[in-house]
Amino acid sequence: MGRIEDTKALDAVRRAALPFAGDDDHGALLALIGDARFVLLGEASHGTHEFYRERARITQRLITEKGFNAVAIEGDWPDAYRVNRYVRGLGDDASAVEALAGFRRFPTWMWRNTDVVDFLDWQRRSNDALPEASRSGFYGTDLDSLNSSIDAVLQYLEKTRPETARLARERYACFDRFGDDSQVYGLMTGLRGAEGCEEEVIAKWDAATARS
User: Fold this and answer.
1) Which domain holds residue 185?
2) Which of these, 24, 40, 90, 182, could form a disulfide with 146 (CB 3.0-4.6 Å)?
């Protein structure tokens, strides 16, 4: 049975695959993408140079030829937003290597590697030649950065709306009993029956938003 399933999978791949004729040959793929607004790019293994290189090349063409303006990665929001500020010419980091320094949670090599640095250098150069409203961004979509995300929100509010920052600390206090590891929160609420913080935080934020 296993061999039959493998054969079916291979046949499906052969029918759908678009072979490359040479370096940077993505014309057929770009044609297949057409006017799509979202393109999902994955890799068969994390950290493989060839996958990262081709992903970067495809993304460059999506930005320059298709008008895409957002790169969303499997990475933590605060760390990626620091990179976003760099590629858009808004941050204090002098290089892509510095901008990636925020990625300290395992596995750091997923993003702090030469292929990503090369892509970010290209994205920065590309953005520098464009008006600010037309520049592409770099964003994280992972949900594992509970505490660093809270810190980023509080730091922003402290600078812009101190009173709201005080309220935010009260809203987030629910998470304190779970410590610094967000996985503990998931474990305790998902498997051990501890009461979560979602409803409390959302309700209090809604109330604060209604007053502001």
Assistant:
1) 146-211
2) 182
